[in-house]
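Notes taken during the Thursday session

The instructor put the following on the board and asked us to keep it in front of us for the whole hour. The protein is ribose-phosphate diphosphokinase. We were told not to look anything up and to reason only from what is written here. First, the residues (313 in total):
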Amino acid sequence: MPNVNLEPKIFACSQSKELAEQIAKSFGTDLGNVITSTYSDGEFQPSFEESVRGTRVFIIGSTYPNADHLMEMLLMLDAAKRASARHITAVMPYFGWARQDRKDKPRVPIAAKLVAKMLEAAGATRIITMDLHADQIQGFFEKPVDHLFASTIFLPYLQSLNLDNLTIASPDMGGSKRAYAYSKALECDVVICYKQRAKANVISHMELIGDVKGKNVVLVDDMVDTAGTLTKAADLMIERGALSVRAITTHAILSGNAFEKIEKSKLKELIVTDSIPLQQENEKVRVLSCAELFADVMHRVHHNTSISSKFLM
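Then, after some discussion, the predicted structure tokens were revealed:
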């Protein structure tokens, strides 16, 4: 019989090693030893350099593109399964490929569902993630999913700003539920941006539903990619009389010329988590760590205690 009282072991995928080190420190342990061998053609093989037999294993890795990050998570899950780990939890601060959560036109994949099936086939017995692009992605899994909310990180920061005439804004109709949840917690008004896209990452038209004149506005979203939506919304709100515009987004993808757009925009501040490592420093971008949140939840999962207090919205 395996010793179920063994302390859990925490391992990191290479793309999230810095965050994983902070999580392990908050958890009260060190990262496990993983060595990755790479072939000349780019194929790679991770190897656990310590026994995981009969233990609970946490593997930390955000799966933002390129696809190697997802592949590394899958390979590490498979290695843990084949090494007889008792429980294998994929800790994915950012769950990549989540924007493809449905068929929005004929003959396209549902990538989020495919990724869920691959993670389970590779050996994951539990998933811990944060601010999924769509809540229903939890239903793509047959294994337990702990879907955490970054509001537990962002709300204390927003409250510390002591902003007068605070208004929460959603940059699109799809994020209205999230915006209303923040407005309820902060007891303030909500405005919504209505946008139309010419194609992915390209906005053709944007309108504002609600009044922002004389208000300090905080845009709320789950991710920022090219920053086109946020910067366009911020500029529109300043034109409509807003005193200031900030944005909070959980996952800072920030691809292409996103940093340049942010720098030139009317955004006063962009507040993000470290679920994805920043590609460069920027005075307008403030990073709040999610390490303590994940460490606390991992500790509760291991000891079979409630994590409902981490679901603020």
